[in-house]
Design goal:
The chain is mainly alpha-helical and 100 residues long. The protein has one domain: 434 Repressor (Amino-terminal Domain), CATH 1.10.260. Helix content is 59%, strand content 0%. It is built from 5 helices and no strands. The radius of gyration is 15 Å and the shape is globular. It starts with a helix and ends in a 10-residue tail after the last helix. This is Helix-turn-helix domain-containing protein. InterPro entries: Cro/C1-type_HTH, Lambda_DNA-bd_dom_sf. It comes from Pseudomonas shahriarae.
Length: 100
């Protein structure tokens, strides 16, 4: 699975989890764009990612974290989150990692 496919799968999973249809995204992106994105046929820009995440009411990083998990399903999702937290700590952005 490549990155575009993984991001599309993550967006689709989040959309379905929220009980939203592709039509619910009219005014955010076109149905065709969302369909192409969810099938990995589009490259997502950060601006479009922000609009989609706003509609989904999720943080912009969530689809990317899920995409990495879908690309490496043998890595537990919680471990990926801990790795991100550790990197934020090492870079000086957080004082005390919660999950170490």
């Amino acid at each position: 699975m490549d990155f575009n496919e993984a991001v599309g799968l993550a967006v689709q999973a989040l959309r379905r989890h929220k009980g939203l249809t592709q039509k619910d995204f009219l005014g955010t992106v076109s149905i065709q764009y969302l369909s192409d994105l969810e099938r990995g046929k589009r490259t997502l820009s950060l601006a479009v990612l922000a609009r989609i995440c706003e509609r989904l009411e999720v943080h912009e990083a969530l689809p990317l974290i899920l995409a990495k998990h879908f690309m490496q399903p043998t890595d537990p999702l919680l471990q990926t989150i801990r790795d991100i937290e550790r990197q934020l700590y090492m870079a000086g952005f957080i004082d005390n990692p919660l999950s170490w």
